[in-house]
């Protein structure tokens, strides 16, 4: 009888403890949002305090803030209700780290730590070096485990500012009545509890109007995205980052391509008026505009991702990116790593100097495919034995990358092999003017 009581108590407590905890920045400077899940409707509380501040010698008292929650039926064939909690810590000091715990006031998570540095919208501006992990097409299953191990280790020994996930999560968030999404959010929890995990949607999130994506992730609001987390931008360090949604060109449910384009053009215009302060303009989205598979060869004509789909996206975005002086476009969807030269209208645009791992004074966007974090699909688009002329490096290995924007002139990107725990490729991009075609 005692055993039955203990087992019942354990199951009950399991429904109350927070899980799937992840952080994200909001549309406001100095804010960090935490989201987490319970399986019973309980209160939403974040307890936090600053530590390691330049100006605060000792940790201060803990502060409790009240969040909110929604019930979410994550099931498709059966009803599975989970409670998704959200709370936002405000007034962060970029010189502090913060320790925090989430819970209901009785059942708490572990204590985690994040940096108080967030996107930056008001003077005095912080344009010091910014480092981002960039990752795409990461799901459950053994192919993604190497990436989990390497990124978990790296996040504990080598600091960075945030994580940018370029679409396709879990494979898929809604599968097995939402259990796959639950499992994957728990896989990333050791990382996403310490760093803002910023997302944009891929095709694997499209199920039922992106319901799981929009419900499980809350990204910065803007006047056009209608709270969908589909597209947004932020300033950090010497760079302006744009996270956009190429799914609108394949499935325009909720937000149309025209809505996003109007927002994008306005956002690019604002960014271009600010390039003395933040000269780097970096765009990320899921579908590729340029990848090295030579789809014109008859053998590979079936490759739609780098073929007809990429050509369609070029028609929509190539001029927009080039004419607005976009420096880099990070793309995914294709499950490998590819780095291209500066490209416009399907042709290499020579820089002032181009080497195998360096571009000085590039004059068009540089394209990098980052879709090899690993998932059960494996490598759906093997790299071509006859890549395009503008292809610089390509690999079928699994991994992810680190972007370092050092200052107004120097940017560095390196891409890792997760199984080999090694750096497979790197590139320097050096500006000789704030904007190449101004
Ligand atoms: Fe995809």
From TrEMBL:
GO terms for molecular function: acid phosphatase activity; metal ion binding. SUPFAM superfamilies: Metallo-dependent phosphatases (SSF56300), Purple acid phosphatase, N-terminal domain (SSF49363). It comes from the Eukaryota. The keyword Signal applies. Residues 18-114 form the Purple acid phosphatase N-terminal domain. It catalyses: a phosphate monoester + H2O = an alcohol + phosphate. Gene3D superfamilies: 3.60.21.10, Purple acid phosphatase-like, N-terminal. It is an enzyme of class 3 (hydrolase). Its EC number is 3.1.3.2. Residues 364-425 form the Purple acid phosphatase C-terminal domain. Residues 133-337 form the Calcineurin-like phosphoesterase domain. Keywords: Glycoprotein, Hydrolase, Signal. The keyword Signal applies. Belongs to the metallophosphoesterase superfamily. Purple acid phosphatase family. This is Purple acid phosphatase.
């Amino acid at each position: 009888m005692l055993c039955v009581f203990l087992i019942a108590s354990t199951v009950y407590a399991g429904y109350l403890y927070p899980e799937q905890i992840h952080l994200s920045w909001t549309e406001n400077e100095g804010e960090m949002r935490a989201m987490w899940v319970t399986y019973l409707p309980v209160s939403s509380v974040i307890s936090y305090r600053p530590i390691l501040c330049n100006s605060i010698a000792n940790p201060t008292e803990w502060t409790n803030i009240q969040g909110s929650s929604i019930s979410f039926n994550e099931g498709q064939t059966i009803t599975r209700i989970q409670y998704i909690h959200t709370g936002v810590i405000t007034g962060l000091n970029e010189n502090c780290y913060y320790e925090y715990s989430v819970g209901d006031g009785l059942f708490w998570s572990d204590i985690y730590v994040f940096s108080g540095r967030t996107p930056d919208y008001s003077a005095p501006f912080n344009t010091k070096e910014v480092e981002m992990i960039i990752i795409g097409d990461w799901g459950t299953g053994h192919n993604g485990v190497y990436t989990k191990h390497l990124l978990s280790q790296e996040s504990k020994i080598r600091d960075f500012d945030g994580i940018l996930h370029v679409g396709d999560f879990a494979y898929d968030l809604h599968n097995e009545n939402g259990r796959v999404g639950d499992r994957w959010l728990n896989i990333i929890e050791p990382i996403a509890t310490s760093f803002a995990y910023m997302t944009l949607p891929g095709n694997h999130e499209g199920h039922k109007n992106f319901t799981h994506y929009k419900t499980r992730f809350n990204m910065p609001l803007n006047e056009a995205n209608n709270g969908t987390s589909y597209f947004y931008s932020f300033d950090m360090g010497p760079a302006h980052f744009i996270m956009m949604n190429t799914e609108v060109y394949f499935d325009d449910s909720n937000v149309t391509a025209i809505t996003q384009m109007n927002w994008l053009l306005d956002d690019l215009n604002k960014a271009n008026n600010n390039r003395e302060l933040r000269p780097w303009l970096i765009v990320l989205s899921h579908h590729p505009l340029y990848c090295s598979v030579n789809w014109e060869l008859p053998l590979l004509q079936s490759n739609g991702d780098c073929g007809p789909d990429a050509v369609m996206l070029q028609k929509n975005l190539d001029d927009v990116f080039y004419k607005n002086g976009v420096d880099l476009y990070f793309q995914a969807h294709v499950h490998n790593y590819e780095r291209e030269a500066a490209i416009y209208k399907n042709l290499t645009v020579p820089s002032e100097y181009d080497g195998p791992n360096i571009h000085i004074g590039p004059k068009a966007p540089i394209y990098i495919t980052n879709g090899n974090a690993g998932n059960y699909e494996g490598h759906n688009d093997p790299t071509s034995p006859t890549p395009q002329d503008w292809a610089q490096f390509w690999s079928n290995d699994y991994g992810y990358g680190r972007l370092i924007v050092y200052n107004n002139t120097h940017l560095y990107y390196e891409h890792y092999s997760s199984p080999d725990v090694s750096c497979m490729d790197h590139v320097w991009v050096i500006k000789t003017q704030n904007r190449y075609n101004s």
